[in-house]
Design brief:
This protein is α/β, with parallel strands linked by helices. The chain folds into 2 domains: 212 residues, P-loop containing nucleotide triphosphate hydrolases (Rossmann fold, 3-Layer(aba) Sandwich), CATH 3.40.50.300; 77 residues, Alpha-Beta Plaits, CATH 3.30.70. It has 10 helices and 14 strands. The strands form 3 sheets. It has a 6-stranded mixed sheet, with helices on both faces. The chain has a 4-stranded antiparallel sheet with strand order 2-1-4-5. α3 crosses α4 and α4 packs across α5. The protein binds adenosine-5'-diphosphate and magnesium ion. Adenosine-5'-diphosphate (ADP) binds next to α1.
């Protein structure tokens, strides 16, 4: 399976260019779209889901010309938006039966099987008779997945599904995605680096409507091998350090000192020791390099 996006641009009426001549190719597996707020994640996903039209560009899914054959494409698409509406006071089981009927699955036996499978895959079988309106955030997100699984989609797009979930719910949700991501393309967006780290077979960093990098999480991290350096400083030294070095991030340790991570092709100085790169290092350096480029272009 393959989704190909070519030269995609989308400008909103207020002049914001949310997607800027974007190119992207995605194969079977879990794809993580990582980017900060305002990067263009939701715009890209709504555009792929054919809910809004781009200014220009092309999207192809296998043999389907997505932008010109929306009806055909929607049959194989499952899309879970970032914000979705309020649920009526109905049980998950009844609601899924209702949605399945709307999708034209009229045979009762067939519908039972499909609904049951969706409930099982999303770990909601035990709570299937409870009202969805009373579900926790994580359960609601999993119900959203159950709903889109009803028509057995080949391409699944999920927009920031882990935002607002507590760590346990987040973990459970990501496991559900992992379950369904093996034979399909699953694209999910997030601003949380850890979401993509273990789960994704492929990922991209998006900002300013552009893809800044695309690779496996492992390769992304390996690209910074031997270039990340660490030191521990007093809190009041941070401004000086930031002036002198290419600081990626800093965090307090248990002694209330600051652990500082610095980028450098070579050792930045005697106080630093080499450390293993993390995906977070990749994310921060990619975003800050992009910011430097954008600023220099603006001058
Ligand atoms: N309907 C809209 N009208 C005008 N501007 C929008 C609209 N939706 C999003 N934007 C702008 O487009 C940019 C990308 O937004 P969005 O796609 O929502 O990013 P993300 O999902 O990564 O946070 C932002 O600058 C946002 O303010
Ligand atoms: Mg969004």
């Amino acid at each position: 399976m393959r989704l190909t996006i070519e030269n995609l641009t989308k400008t909103y009426k207020n002049g914001v260019k949310a997607i800027d001549n974007l190119n992207l190719e995605i194969g079977t597996g879990m794809f993580g779209l990582l980017g900060p707020n305002g990067a263009g994640k939701s715009t890209l996903m709504r555009t792929i889901a054919t809910l809004q039209s781009p200014d220009s560009g092309a999207i192809n899914f296998n043999d389907i010309d997505v932008l010109n054959d929306k009806i055909e494409f929607r049959k194989v698409l499952g899309y879970l938006p970032q914000e979705f509406g309020v649920y009526p006071k109905m049980s998950a089981n009844d609601l899924l039966h209702y949605f399945a009927s709307l999708k034209g699955i009229t045979d009762k036996k067939e519908r039972n099987e499909i609904v049951e499978k969706a409930l099982e895959l999303t770990n909601l079988y035990e709570v299937r008779n409870k009202n969805v309106a009373g579900y926790s955030g994580g359960m609601k997100q999993r119900f959203g997945i159950a709903q889109l699984l009803l028509n057995n989609p080949e391409l699944i797009i999920v927009d920031e599904p882990t935002a607002g979930l507590d760590p346990a719910e987040r973990h459970r949700f990501l496991n559900v995605l992992r379950e369904i991501g093996t034979n399909n393309i699953v694209i999910f967006s997030t601003h949380i680096v850890d979401d993509v780290k273990e789960l994704c077979t492929d990922m991209a960093i998006l900002n300013g409507g552009k893809i800044l990098a695309q690779d496996t999480p492992k390769q992304m991290t390996a690209s910074l091998s031997d270039k990340i350096w660490q030191t521990t400083i007093e809190r009041d030294q941070i401004e000086q350090i930031q002036k002198e070095y290419n600081v990626i991030s800093s965090s307090y340790n248990e002694d209330n000192m600051l652990n500082v991570r610095v980028y450098g092709e070579e050792s930045p100085g005697a106080i630093f020791t080499k450390t293993l790169p993390t995906l977070e290092d990749v994310y921060f350096t990619t975003l800050s390099n992009d910011k430097l480029i954008t600023e220099s272009e603006a001058v």
